[in-house]
Amino acid sequence: MTSTRARRSAFRFALLTALTALAAACTSSGRPDAENRATPSQAVMAALRTVERSTGEAESARVRSTTTMGAELSMKSDGTLAWRDGLTGTLTITYTGGTTAETMRRLGTTSMEARYLPDAYYARMGERFADKADGKHWIKYAYDDLESLAGSSGAALADQMRGTAPHTSVKLLLSSTDVRRVGEETVRGERTAHYSGTVSAQGAGTQTVDIWVDDRNLLVKKVEKGHTATGGQLTQTAFYSDYGVRTTAEKPPAGDTVDLKDLLEKKGG
């Protein structure tokens, strides 16, 4: 394999792992559906602003999610995230199907620990990866490096990862032109209000975002449905609980960590 091909292969793998982290953290990425000019009611907008504020002020929560991205990826994640001073937290990501799962399985990794810190995201890989990375198990994705290595697309990815929090979905619905209150439903034994709206996903047409809110105006469930850039079905369901939970995320040992830039410079990826 030539140095250029090796670098591209490693870079594709590295960004795929970063994308997995983004999906696990339940980020909504989109904008209002410009083709739908309906005007949401003032009552719905006022309610959603209250939910955004209450959920944002909670500052941390437990997150459990499942994600399917066509034939590329299916996975589940579980952990805690905090968003007071930049995104921090730890998730356990388990690959359950798709081509990404096969790639990770070949690297000896069927589950991965992901740590989010304000300046970088860290992914713990398996022993087979460590054998090819001088014994190091962790990949560091410094957000500044993503921008310098991948230009505008890397910068967008870094911004999304840094900005991930439950109230991001609420903020997105506030900009939707057709968001509405669907009604009241029970979610895991709790009475909730259900809201739904349509947004334009970046480069992938439209998607729907549904949220369920409890009587404390906290987001307890979110479902996103749309299509990936390659045409596959995207479905993500996330549950949020234990708001205010104590959340920690320590930087992995430097001696057990390889930077993304160094990984890409290593011949053969």
Outline the structure in words.
With 269 residues, the chain is α+β, with helices and mostly antiparallel strands. 32% of the residues lie in helices and 37% in strands. It contains 7 helices and 13 strands. It has helices at residues 3-24, 42-58, 98-106, 127-131, 143-162, 167-174, 260-265, and strands at residues 30-32, 60-69, 73-82, 88-97, 111-117, 120-124, 138-142, 180-187, 190-201, 206-213, 219-227, 233-241, 257-259. Strands 1, 2, 3, 4, 5, 6, 7, 8, 9, 10, 11, 12 and 13 form a 13-stranded mixed β-sheet that branches. Strand 2 and strand 3 form a beta hairpin. Helix 2 (42-58) packs antiparallel against helix 6. The longest helix has 22 residues, at 3-24. The chain is globular and about 60 Å long. The termini are close together.
Set out the fold topology.
Blueprint: H1 3-24, E1 30-32, H2 42-58, E2 60-69, E3 73-82, E4 88-97, H3 98-106, E5 111-117, E6 120-124, H4 127-131, E7 138-142, H5 143-162, H6 167-174, E8 180-187, E9 190-201, E10 206-213, E11 219-227, E12 233-241, E13 257-259, H7 260-265
Parallel strand pairs: 7-13
Antiparallel strand pairs: 1-9, 2-3, 2-12, 3-4, 4-5, 5-6, 6-7, 8-9, 9-10, 10-11, 11-12
Helix pairs in contact: 2-6
